[in-house]
Specification:
This protein is an alpha/beta fold and 321 residues long. The chain has a single domain (50-320), classed as Rossmann fold (3-Layer(aba) Sandwich). The chain has helices at residues 2-13, 58-61, 65-70, 119-125, 141-156, 173-176, 210-219, 233-245, 254-259, 261-266, 270-277, 297-304, 308-320; strands spanning 107-113, 132-138, 166-170, 186-192, 220-230, 249-251, 283-289. It has a 7-stranded mixed beta sheet with strand order 3-2-1-4-5-7-6, with helices on both faces. It is globular, with a radius of gyration of 21 Å.
Length: 321
Amino acid sequence: MSDVSSDDEKAKYYTQLGKYRMPNKNNYRQHAHCNPLSKISMGYPFSPECINWSLCYPIEFSSSPEDQKANSLLYLNTKTYPGPFTNENYKPISTTNTPKDFYSNPYVSIVDVGCGYGALLENMSSSLEKGSLALGLEIRDKVTNYVGERIKGLRLNTDNKEFNNISVMRSNTMKLLLNFFYKGQLDKLFFCFADPHFKRTNHRKRIINQYLLNEYAYLLKKGGRLYIITDVEELYIWERSMLNQNRCFKELDKIEVEKDIFTGFMKNTNEAKKVIKNKGEMFYSIYERVEPNIKNLSELYDCLDYTKDEKEEKEEKEGDN
């Protein structure tokens, strides 16, 4: 009886050729839009030191046979696969205190916010520098499971030689991003085909806004880059407006944008292919993290002031009253 069950289990996960059976996307479909401001039950690390990254990237941290076996385990922070958090060891210290040996080991330096079905992660995997890890953050439970199981399949089907530097985790970026990373840890942040939230009352749900940009500036190192791409021109104008108002970011010219190898990766994702198929247009830009030139307190207050769009909304409400 045990032999039969083991054969059935093997047939479930492996093809007749011995390859790991890749997950079927149709079994992981979930509503494309999710309210990030609603109460969503999910685990999270109390602070960056409470994450055991070696569970997500075992081969990158060690090449021992036991770790290669661990490469088939998933830690996605979903209902099916728990997160790699060690909150029981939490000590309340400032997140700016990066551990001394942190950068001597592989660490996450690239984050794809709202990674969807993970095409961008796959595209960039072979081009990442040694020791550089990429992480996709996705708020939807089923979609996160799909990306995690697909990455697992890609690793196993290449004998653990490829795709070891990418992973995915479920998280609400608008609320929990600072719990995952230290100050200045990130080299690149991607926001690809974000939810446009067309209604004016829903603009606060947009992933690019003046308040969240301060968090992104905090996590990006000097010279780091923030990437945006969308097929909605209205959203693109909004995102550029928010970024241009923030003194921590400087827009790169089109020549520099086209030179960046990651621009090509963004234009080759599933969503980008849909746009091309429907003969639509893509709008994209890259912003570099710079040190703001602030000479006095009034300029500092201007940086922390309302955005133009929010000022107009406030004036409208005051006029109605």
